[in-house]
Design goal:
Blueprint lengths: L29 H157 L1 E4 L5 E5 L3 H10 L2 E9 L5 E3 L2 E9 L4 E8 L2 E9 L4 E3 L8 E9 L2 E9 L5
Antiparallel strand pairs: 1-2, 3-10, 4-5, 5-6, 6-7, 8-9, 9-10
Length: about 300
C-alpha cells in the first residue's frame, strides 16, 4: 500500500527532508519574541546581581579573615603579656613576703630593745620615787613631831585656861542659882479675881525671867494698846478698852473659846483669872505697867494643859 505524497509522506528518519514544511519568522507571535527578550534581560540582571553579591561576600570574607588574624595576633600578645605579668606578680609577691618577714624581725627586735629600755627606766624611776618618799616621810615626821609638841603645849595652856573658865562658870552658875532662889523666895502667890489661889506673881521683867527659868508655866509677854481690833496673845485674844494712870487701873476684854469676858477696873500686879474649855486651872493675866491707852504684862497658862 502506497501513500500519496500529498498526504505528507513518511514520518520516518529516512524521509525526504525537502518534503518537510518550512515555517517563516513571520509565522511566530510577537509576544513570544518579547518574552524571550525579557527573559534574557532578567537572566542577565540576576547574573549581574549574583556576581556582585558573590564579590561582596568574598570581600567580607577577606575582611573577616583579616580581623580574625588580627584578633589571633592580639590574643597571642595578650597571652604572652599575661604570662609575663603573672611571672612579674609572683616575683613581686615573693619580694613582698621577704620584706614583710624582714620587717617582722625588725619589729620584734625593736620591741625587745624597747622593753629592756622601759624596764630599766621603770626601775630607775621606782628607785627615785622610793628615795623621795623616804625623804618626804622623814621631813613630815620631823614637822609632825614639832607640830605635836606645839599642839601639846597649846593644849596644856588652853586646858589651864579652860579650867579657870570652868571654875568661873561654876561660880557664876552658883551665883545665878542663888539669885534665882532669892528672887523666887521674894515672889508672892495671891488670890486672883476669881478667888483662886494664883501661882507666883512677877512684878517686873527680872522676876518674870526667874519664873520662865523655873518652868512651871508657859508665859506670853504682851504690850497691849487701845485699838478697835483685839490682839492675839498666846491662845487667847485681848482688847484694851480703858486705862486710869492715876489709879493704875485698866479695863479689858478677853476672848477665849469664842466666849467674851470683860475684866473691868483691874489694878496692876493683880492676877486676872479666866477659864478655858477642858482646863481645870485658870489662865492668869498680870499687868505690871499701866500707861495712857496702853498696858504691859504677861499671860500665864498651865504647863501641862496649854493648848
Amino acid at each position: 500500500m502506497s501513500i500519496s505524497p500529498g498526504y505528507g509522506g513518511s514520518f520516518g528518519a529516512d524521509s525526504d527532508p525537502s518534503w518537510r514544511p518550512q515555517i517563516s519568522n513571520t509565522d511566530r507571535p510577537k509576544w513570544f519574541t518579547l518574552a524571550i527578550l525579557l527573559a534574557l534581560v532578567g537572566l542577565a540582571g540576576v547574573s549581574g546581581y549574583l556576581f556582585t553579591l558573590l564579590r561582596a561576600t568574598r570581600t567580607e570574607l577577606a575582611q573577616a579573615n583579616t580581623k580574625i588574624k588580627a584578633h589571633e595576633e592580639q590574643l597571642a600578645k595578650l597571652e604572652g603579656s599575661l604570662v609575663s605579668t603573672s611571672r612579674q606578680n609572683q616575683e613581686n609577691l615573693s619580694s613582698l613576703k621577704e620584706e614583710v618577714t624582714a620587717a617582722k624581725g625588725e619589729i620584734h627586735q625593736a620591741a625587745r630593745e624597747a622593753q629592756s629600755i622601759t624596764l630599766a627606766k621603770t626601775q630607775q624611776i621606782a628607785e627615785k620615787l622610793r628615795a623621795e618618799q623616804k625623804a618626804a616621810v622623814a621631813k613630815v615626821g620631823g614637822d609632825l613631831e614639832q607640830q605635836l609638841k606645839t599642839v601639846a603645849s597649846n593644849t596644856d595652856s588652853k586646858l589651864g585656861s579652860l579650867s579657870g573658865d570652868v571654875s568661873g562658870v561654876r561660880t557664876e552658875i552658883s551665883s545665878t542659882r542663888e539669885e534665882l532662889r532669892k528672887t523666887i523666895a521674894e515672889l508672892k502667890s495671891v488670890r486672883g479675881d476669881l478667888g483662886v489661889q494664883s501661882g507666883l506673881i512677877a512684878t517686873n521683867s527680872s522676876e518674870l525671867g526667874a519664873l520662865k527659868r523655873l518652868g512651871e508655866r508657859n508665859y506670853f509677854e504682851f504690850d497691849l494698846k487701845k485699838a478697835k481690833q483685839p490682839q492675839r496673845v498666846g491662845t487667847v485674844s485681848m482688847k484694851l478698852k480703858a486705862t486710869d494712870t492715876k489709879r493704875n487701873r485698866y479695863t479689858m476684854e478677853v476672848l477665849a473659846d469664842d466666849k467674851l469676858t470683860e475684866k473691868k477696873d483691874r489694878t496692876i500686879n493683880e492676877p486676872v483669872q479666866f477659864y478655858v474649855a477642858k482646863v481645870r486651872i485658870p489662865y492668869e493675866i498680870v499687868v505690871n505697867q499701866v500707861a495712857k491707852d496702853r498696858i504691859v504684862g504677861y499671860l500665864a497658862t498651865p504647863k501641862d494643859q496649854a493648848r
